[in-house]
Specification:
The protein is of the alpha/beta class. The chain is 28% helix and 23% strand. The strands form three sheets. Strands 4, 14, 15, 16, 17, 18, 19, 20 and 21 form a nine-stranded mixed β-sheet that branches. Strands 5-6-7-8-9-11-12-13 form an eight-stranded parallel barrel, surrounded by seven helices. The protein binds ligand LLP.
Length: 462
């Protein structure tokens, strides 16, 4: 553990579990650019600014908690992916965060969109997303969802089961159209990530297995159906992945199946989709790869494997969600109470919690946090940022150092909350969900408004 710059040393550093890699920060005011969005900066007064806007003004105007989304940062990430995967297709995975403004931004930046429910499809269509640029996922799409997707002219449906092949084929046939599909295959890769977000090992709900022959059988069935056009194969191995070895194995197994399909049916499928999953930095300890790195590696593996199998190299697509929107937002909270436990840690209660960020409770996710409304020279204290919900698992940031003089009324910000925070937000305890405020070039606008008590009561019709 590194030593603190403060003569008194950090307080309570000794209570962290063995092997915990939380570093005592040299400078509590430093903003690690890996974790904070591109236009964030701290002024001489210690106040955080984003897109040139003072967070105290944002809190005043929009209230707290609020997700503050840095539009320029997000658009730059879209461009990085688009550029890195030139000659391939990038589908932004809307499950990470979706609203109409964001649909327009990604479309303007040349990205396509992956949706996985009728609700996500509705948002995409209502924002004017070109249906042919939408891919529709899900392991149990309803017949109504399938029909709606086909009626809308969705570019591709990723089929996940035999039942679904029959359902999509029937709906397409009834409408006299030919629907483009990909088969979601599971390649048997153990992705090194949390069990709940790993998806390519055999013992889970998604996809058709390559190893037991079910994926090959799905292809056989689809090729016999006149209302389906098989574009190719899809594999998503999991999320928050740093090690590219899993993608390599996945690409190799998918290409091997393409070769087997060519041998059996005499057709070379034109596309493969290797899913999303690239990890981001939630804390300074994380070291993610760039889109350019991952693009180079994936395209090389696919080319190499295709040449070895004497296959024409198929068109590649990828589906990043977290890596596009995750680092572009932070959550702004106001501190309500602090509780110092001698020799242990300080609990800092903020005005949100597990309803706006379930990831800490659900996946043991690590985050960092900073005091952002003023400067402080106080010593760092091991702290736990908790919410206002009625359970002790309501933790936003499990372990982080905050200045000892942190007090009610201070604003704190948790970076890298753009992905899977608003989209997984709940109304637990009837707490209303925070707004998403987009900031760009000195201007702020609400793109998803704060939920109100009227919103909650409107659903309660008893
Ligand atoms: N494509 C497919 C088929 C997926 O299932 C997913 C994520 C993605 C793309 C995008 O993955 P990304 O690039 O965002 O890692 N709620 C969890 C993540 C669940 C991801 C589910 N599928 C979390 O908060 O970490």
């Amino acid at each position: 553990m590194s030593r603190s710059a403060h003569p008194a040393g950090p307080r309570h550093a000794d209570v962290l579990p063995e092997g915990h890699h939380l570093q005592v920060p040299e400078d509590l005011n430093a903003l690690d650019p890996k974790v904070w969005s591109a236009t964030t900066e701290r002024g001489d007064d210690g106040v955080l600014r984003v897109a040139g806007l003072d967070v105290r003004d944002l809190a005043q105007e929009f209230g707290t908690p609020a997700y503050i989304l840095d539009e320029a940062d997000l658009r730059a990430r879209c461009r990085d992916w688009k550029e890195a995967f030139a000659g391939a297709d990038v589908f932004y995975a809307g499950k990470a965060f979706l609203c109409r403004a964001l649909v327009r931004w990604i479309a303007e930046e040349g990205l396509n969109l992956d949706v996985c429910s009728g609700g996500e499809l509705a948002v995409a269509l209502s924002a004017g997303m070109e249906p042919s640029r939408i891919a529709f996922h899900g392991n149990n799409k309803s017949v109504a969802e399938i029909e709606r997707a086909i009626d809308a002219g969705v570019g591709r449906i990723i089929v996940d089961s035999y039942e679904e092949i029959a359902r999509v084929a029937f709906a397409a046939e009834q409408r006299g159209v030919v629907q483009k599909v990909l088969v979601r295959v599971t390649v048997g890769v153990e992705a090194h990530t949390h069990e709940f977000i790993a998806t390519a090992h055999e013992d889970q709900k998604f996809g058709l297995s390559v190893s037991d022959g079910k994926a090959a059988e799905a292809v056989r069935r689809i090729l016999k159906l006149g209302s389906l056009e098989l574009l190719g194969l899809h594999s998503h191995i999991g999320s928050q992945i740093f090690d590219t070895a899993g993608f390599e194995v996945s690409a190799r197994r998918v290409v091997a199946l393409l070769a087997a399909i060519r041998d059996e049916h005499g057709v070379e499928l034109p596309e493969i989709d290797l899913g999303g999953g690239l990890g981001i930095a939630y804390t300074s300890a994380d070291d993610p790869q760039t889109p350019a790195d991952i693009a180079r590696q994936l395209t090389e593996i696919v080319k190499r494997e295709c040449h070895a199998a004497d296959l024409t190299v198929p068109r590649l697509s990828v589906e990043p969600g977290r890596a596009i929107v995750g680092p572009s937002a932070f959550t702004l909270y106001e501190v309500g109470t602090t509780k110092e436990l001698d020799g242990l840690r300080t609990y800092v209660s903020v005005d949100g919690g597990m309803s706006d960020n379930i990831r800490t409770a659900l996946y043991d996710a690590e985050y960092t946090v900073s005091l952002v409304s003023r400067a402080s020279g106080a010593e760092p204290v091991l702290s736990r940022v908790v919410g206002k919900h009625c359970e002790s698992g309501d933790i936003v940031v499990r372990d982080a150092y905050l200045p000892a003089d942190l007090a009610p009324g201070d604003l704190v910000a948790v970076p890298a909350t753009g992905a899977y925070c608003r989209s997984m937000a709940s109304n637990y305890n009837h707490v209303t969900r925070p707004p998403v405020v987009a900031v760009r070039d000195g201007k702020a606008r609400v793109v998803v408004r704060r939920e109100t008590e009227e919103d909650l009561l409107r659903l309660d019709v008893g």
